[in-house]
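User: Second chain of the day. Same drill as before.
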Amino acid sequence: MAHFLRQLLWLLLTGAVPPILMMVSTRRWTWPDVWQAYWTSAMFATLIGAPAGFVLPRLVVRSRNWASAWRIAAYGATLFVLANLGTMAGLWVLWFAGAVPERLFWQWTANAFRWSWFLTFCAGVVTYTYAHFRLQMEASNEKLRAKEREEQESRRLATEARLASLESRIHPHFLFNALNSVSSLIREDPVRAELLLERVSALLRFSLYEPHGGLVSLEQELKIVRDYLEIETVRFGPRLRYEVTCAAELDHVMVPPLSVQTLVENSVKYAITNRREGGEVRVSARRAGNEALVEVRDSGPGFDQISIPTGHGLDLLGARLDAQFSGAASLGYNRLPDGMSVTLRLPTAVAA
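Assistant: Same format as last time:
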């Protein structure tokens, strides 16, 4: 409706051009003459402009891929035909209404065609130029949108490939260590080896069925951590002492799969494996404002962050956090007098 009203307004304004020119060019006019000239001109403008408003936009769309010369020719020919048909229709209306004296019919006809061709040509140039630049702008915008979509898709695929690469390096490493624990007990203690296999089976199912690049709840992650520590307890016996605590409100916070397990595995490696007296590993999760802090603390000798080799589990975990949370999650290292603390910071806003 709004489009129709705008089009009608433009036609009425176009119809005002001849009366205005008549008023400017001659001093011999009266208001009845101006009014008659206006409604006559407005009628012709409507009879020509209304069909043109319906036909020309569709012609522009159909001819958008044509050569410029053919497109201009088609546009001009269509305007010429519409101008003649509309002018003839207007003359017939005036004739049957008795508004044109018979002796002045051909003079009116000549004037009507001259004005129609002139105004149609002017309106055609304006509308064609507007339509041409509008099509160019739409084409440019579509190219920009297509480029943005391609860039977004490229970034998404690159992120997925990066995550898949990182996880493919973490999962085999973890499972290799777990299977080593099983093999070390098969001959010495078959019962414990069977228990160990059940734990490994649970870990393997988790590793296989979690979606690549996805997240799991902290509750699920800590269950895997407990299974892992149970496996290592069978292997190390009393040398490994551990504790896992988590505030209930953080159970549904989302974490990268095997992220906390990677920290625990690192603690077991440096605080338990190479020390005859063993040590302690404590896992705790608490809230700090809008963050969840998952701390893995051990009683080992500790290490400096700069000493972490490229491709190490902790280095890969940092890359995963950066890829999945875009800087909103991080690892913090704190070397203590009696051990080492590594804290995983996660946004609580990402929840299951």
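The mean pLDDT is 78.

User: Great, on to the next one.
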